[in-house]
Amino acid sequence: MNLTKSSICIIVIIPVLFLSCEKIVDWEVEGEQLNTIVVEGMLTNEMQHHEIKIKRPKKQVNSNSEPVRDAVVIISTENASARFFHSEANPGTYISEIPFSAGLNRSYELSILIDGENYSAQSYMSPLFPYQTPVFNYHPQNGFYTINWNNPQYDPTEQALFEAIIDWSHLTQNPNDSAKIRLLYYTMNSINVSHLLFPADQERIFFPAGSIVIFSKYSVNEEYGNYLRALLSETQWQGSIFEPDRGNLPGNISNGGLGFFSVNAVSRDTLIVAPQKKHSNKQLNTSTLKK
After folding, report:
1. Which of 82, 75, 77, 74 is nearest to 107 (CA)?
2. Does residue 20 lie in a domain region?
3. Which one of 44, 127, 141, 172 is least enclosed by Cβ atoms within 10 Å?
4. What pTM, to 2 d.p., does this model score?
5. Is 226 within a domain?
6. pLDDT tens digits, residue range 166-216?
7. Domain presence at residue 245
């Protein structure tokens, strides 16, 4: 087939037109101040001063939340109650007047009064089952370690939240280096097809030998599990053909409040990452400081 000069020019120009149709558009998102609050609160079975965080919703995507400073906060159960007072050192954080621990077979109610508006939430503690402490994998190519979460992502008998706080700030000489991080891992009693078939790419966190790692396992009741599952669906489980429709998280704060108030049993282990020995297994045994 013979092609004329004009037809050759058309064949060359058309792909160029498709590749060059780019225009930078600045989208202006109008901010909106919702007349409500965002609550983050967790009671545990540890004898301590507990905290409740209260803020206003963000006006813009990248803006800071406005802390609530003048709320009346009380947690009660049966014939006992504890009042929380605002911390000027941490605006928006309310700390219990006395230390106390939450227990099984009790219902706890959070009451918040702000500018004549009442918000409340109820929760209870589910039992905590034994678990395997995660281990560390050694990577000889860079000499660092990663966490091997060896607990199941699915368990029909329980739900749990795992937390790892990794700190190697005592090993760095540069105070500006980021040397502390918090990682979360979940066990749910239902299977998410999107996460299993098309898991989202997650950044691998490497840390050196000598790092101090605090592992915690929190029990999760049914309502808190629904909240965490919805949160994961909006974040980590997005990006596949099976992803769910977006929507508001099923919090338990009344009167249009956002967030969640939970009561959790917790167990903690504090470990030090021991240096990898030559010719040893890549899964690292660790030294337990406290259990």
Report:
1. 77
2. no
3. 141
4. 0.79
5. yes
6. 999 999 887 767 799 999 999 988 876 655 545 555 678 999 999 999 999
7. yes
